[in-house]
Amino acid sequence: MEAALGLMRRMPPRHSETTLSALLSLLPGHSSDLLSQVDLPLQVLSDEDSGQKFILCEYNRDADSHRSPWSNKYHPPLEDAPYPSSKLRQLEIEANDIFTVYCDQYYEGGISSVYMWEDENEGFVVCFLVKKDGSKTGQGRRGYLEEGTWDAIHVIEVGPEEELTRYCLTSTVMLSLTTDDVSSGTFSLSGSIRRQMNMNLPVADGHLSNMGKMIEEMEGKLRNSLDQVYFGKTREMVCNLRPSNEVVQMRLPTS
After folding, report:
1. pTM for this predicted structure
2. What average pLDDT does the structure give for the chain?
3. Following DSSP, what letter does each residue of 38-96 receive, concatenated?
4. Which of 115, 162, 164, 254 is 20 to 30 A from 34 in CA distance terms?
5. Of 3.90.1150.210, 3.30.420.10, 3.30.450.20, 2.60.40.10, which CATH number belongs to 85-241?
6. Average pLDDT for residues 156-170, to the nearest whole number?
7. What is the β-pairing status of strands 61-62 and 74-75?
8. For residue 190, which of 178, 203, 208 has the smallest C-alpha distance?
């Protein structure tokens, strides 16, 4: 099981579904553990009732149906499906409205969804999802990428409501991009990163305010890590293998 999870962490996101399918065939006894611990690239579905798109994941799925955060209906329809309580549903509606604004400001567009459900410890769990298609044919406003996707998954476990409430955040980001033009040539980069954060925050500030601050801080850390690990190392390798003309001229012996 540890080897399987290690393999999944090292696979490019675009190959994760094929790899997971192969692992499920090899390890049928660990299928539930693999499905619960492995994050796959996010998929999108249109809600015909609201006219808006929503993100599919394990957290809004029951059987083969997924619940839309906009209409609170399952697609396709499902009998005896689980729903959040009326109080939690109101918080979920507010969170989706706020996170849509956050997504537009930080990602220059994209699709977001927020799902909430009760847990067994008198608290609740929240899942914030963002999918950004940065390709030329998608939502990429600058037109630099032939293909490009950013999938962000933030799961927050909220403890019982007290003066200081416990928040446990687990965040995963999956990045994949490809360029193909005359100036930059063909270049492909993909990977994923996961981090955790625990905080005790005053509930008087409001759950959405507390969770929003944690997500904002975590996304900043994840972007910095991706910039240092993926782009920084790639830049270092390219500069060593293909030095600029100025560097080449400096290295040439003078007559």
Report:
1. 0.81
2. 85
3. -----EEEEETTTTEEEEE-GGGEETTEEE-TTT--EES--TT-----HHHHHHHHHHH
4. 115
5. 3.90.1150.210
6. 93
7. unpaired
8. 178
Residue spans per domain, the chain: 85-241
CB-side neighbour CA atoms (13 Å) of 186: 0
Q: How much is the average pLDDT of 66-83?
A: 94
What number is the average pLDDT over the span 70-97?
94
Q: Is 116:92 a contact under the CB 8 Å cutoff?
A: yes
pLDDT digits (tens, 9 = 90+) for 176-230: 887 777 666 677 777 788 899 999 999 988 999 999 999 999 999 998 888 877 7
Given a cut of 90, is residue 252 above it in pLDDT? no
Beta pairing, strands 61-62 & 65-67: antiparallel
The C-alpha atoms of residue 88 and residue 134 are separated, in whole angstroms, by 33
Work out the pLDDT band at 138, boundaries 50, 70, 90: low
Question: Would you tell me how many other CB atoms lie within 10 Å of the CB of residue 54?
Answer: 25
The tally of CA atoms less than 13 A away on the side-chain side of residue 203 is 11
- The H or E element spanning position 33 is helix 31-37
How many residues make up the chain in this entry? 255
Tokens of 116: 């909430």
